[in-house]
Amino acid sequence: MGLRPGGERPDLEPLVVTLYAAMYDAIAAHSRLGLNVVVDAVHHDSYSAPLGILPACLRRLDGLPVLIVGVHCPIDVVLERRRATWGGVGYNQGGTVTDPVGLWHEAVHTPGLYDVEVDTSVHSADECAEIIRERLESR
Fold first, then answer.
1. Where are the alpha helices (DSSP H) in the chain?
2. What are the φ/ψ torsions at residue 15 (nearest 5 degrees)?
3. Which of 41, 44, 120, 128 is the most buried (most CB within 10 A)?
4. What is the pLDDT of residues 32-41, one digit of tens each?
5. From CA 79, how far away is CA 75, in angstroms rounded?
6. Which pTM does this prediction carry?
7. Looking at residue 71, what DSSP letter applies?
C-alpha cells in the first residue's frame, strides 16, 4: 500500500490516506476484540506534500498495546538479496541503485521513532523475533 517516495502521483495520495485509515481501523477493531495482531506495514511521508499518515494511524490505535518495530538492513545487503531473488531488480544498468529503491530505503526510516529495532543483516529471522518477544515481555 502506498506510493513510492517522490510525489509521482499526487492524484492518488488522498486514496492512500484513506486506505491506511481503513487498514488501521481494522487493526484496532481486531485488537479491541482481544486478538493479537501483527502488521507488516511500511510508512513514509515523502509524498508531494507531507500527509502525516503514520501519526494519524497511530492515533487510531490509541489505548491499545502497540509496539513499533524498526526493521533495518543496509542498502547493499537489501540489493544483494534482491539480486539473488529477482535477478538484479533495483539496479541501473551500471550497477548503481535506482532512485526509487534508494529513496524508499531512506524515506521509510524518517523520522525513525521505534520502540525496538532489529537489523536483518546482523540477526536471523528467529533472532529478530526473539528481540521483539523480549521487548514485548519487558513492557
1. 13-32, 53-60, 75-86, 99-107, 125-137
2. -65, -40
3. 44
4. 999 999 999 9
5. 6
6. 0.83
7. E
